[in-house]
Design goal:
heterodimer; A: alpha+beta; Jelly Rolls; 2 domains; B: alpha+beta; 4-stranded antiparallel beta sheet; about 45% helix
Chain lengths: ~200, ~200
């Protein structure tokens, strides 16, 4: 989805939602704010007391689960403008999921309500929630497929293809962790690919 | 379930959706079949051209992703009567998800399903959102368990979560599901038996 600046919440919601229901869009827009997050800012974290609603306008965020040693186990990286993520507080708190800005980001956030609460009065929103957040579920499951079915080199090629626009933003050790590859194996794979393609690995 | 009585699909959907919308109930009944499945039958697999919807009435099913060597990597074991698995075709075809029976099962199978019927009956969109949550929690909880618990804690989590079906799932499959080596799982089971904690 192409989102032009200056950001216009109503126009973005029109482009994002399947329905053209003006009443629904203006009701949602009235609770939305544009916020800027700095690199490293938390967007949501376990212990959330409210549902969270985020539409990514620019920048990169990641969702992850923390290991006891502090390792951030990434579930996925988000970077496509228009990505719509709206976990209920249970969806954050039960699996203990964090969401953090990897770069400076601009987001639309909802304040004081959530699509779930609003959908009780505006049922057309249920469809927007299920179809709008489907990519989140599909992406997490796709990562499981990649882990189960591909060798390390194919996993890295899948990563480059899926996350090409942000491949240079993610540190190599984080890519290795995400793909379940030893850092030294990832280095070897990158060297092999560079030799095969005459393509210098990015810094 | 009393096998001598015909299964009351109307009553099932009325209770399940807590709705009095007779037109909706009629349409769901029209699209539904009660099926008895044997152990090992495939319920959906990659390549589907529409969504797949199953209500589990009894038995055990699993969703999994196949490795190239044929290994079945389980995403979740489903066994609670009334569990609804409503999979959009993208959730089957993109991650290449399979679903099969692990025991004889009684199921309601729907075609077309709620994704196709929801534009006609918009209240189904809400049920898709709420009905899908247990599946989401199951998938996410397994990720958390994998990242945060030791092998022994993972097995205790499994015994707690899957207590009613622990005898249906072969030990090798439990080990793989939990990311534990089979010999480590044996050791953990022995330890728990000595501590008097292994119920299986």
């Amino acid at each position: 989805m192409k989102i032009e600046k200056p950001y216009d919440i109503s126009k973005i919601l029109h482009d994002l939602f399947i329905s053209d229901d003006e009443e629904m869009i203006s009701a949602v827009a009235s609770h939305c704010h544009i916020v800027t997050k700095e690199k490293g800012d938390t967007i949501w974290a376990p212990g959330a007391t409210e549902d969270s609603t985020t539409i990514l306008l620019d920048g990169v965020v990641k969702t992850f689960i923390l290991s006891p040693d502090g390792t951030e186990n990434t579930m996925t990286f988000w970077f496509k403008p228009g990505t719509f993520i709206c976990p209920t507080k249970e969806m954050i708190n039960i699996p203990e999921i964090w969401c953090v800005a990897l770069t400076q980001c601009t987001l639309i956030e909802m304040v004081g309500t959530s699509p779930y609460k609003m959908a009780e009065d505006i049922p057309v929103l249920w469809k927007e929630i299920i179809l709008g957040t489907l990519p989140f579920a599909v992406r997490i499951m796709e990562k499981a497929r990649v882990g189960y079915t591909m060798d390390a080199k194919d996993r890295y090629l899948w990563f480059l293809n899926t996350f090409r626009p942000i491949a240079d933003i993610i540190p190599q050790n984080e890519i290795a962790l995400y793909l379940g590859i030893q850092p030294q194996s990832l280095s070897r794979i990158r060297t092999e690919l560079a030799e095969e393609q005459g393509d210098a690995p990015s810094k | 379930m009393d096998n001598k009585q015909p299964f009351d699909l109307h009553g099932f959907f009325r209770n399940y959706l807590m709705t009095d919308n007779e037109a909706l109930i009629e349409r769901l009944v029209e699209c539904s079949r009660l099926e008895k499945r044997k152990k090992g039958e495939i319920l959906f697999s990659p390549g589907v051209t529409c969504s797949s919807t199953i209500f589990l009435l009894d038995g055990v099913i699993k969703t999994y992703i196949r490795s190239p060597d044929g290994t079945e990597n389980t995403l979740a074991f489903l066994f609670r009567p009334g569990t609804c698995v409503a999979m959009h075709e993208d959730m089957i075809n993109i991650p290449k998800t399979w679903c099969k029976t692990m025991s004889p099962c009684t199921l309601i199978e729907m075609s077309p399903g709620p994704y196709e019927l929801a534009d006609e009956f918009p209240e189904l969109w809400k049920h898709l959102v709420t009905g899908w949550r247990p599946f989401y929690y199951g998938m996410m909880d397994k990720l958390r368990v994998g990242y945060t618990l030791t092998a022994k804690e993972r097995y205790l989590w499994f015994m707690d979560k899957y207590a009613p079906i622990i005898d249906y799932v072969p030990q090798a499959e439990i080990a793989r599901f939990l990311g534990i080596k089979p010999q480590s799982l044996s050791r953990i089971r022995n330890e728990l038996a000595e501590e008097g904690r292994d119920q299986s």
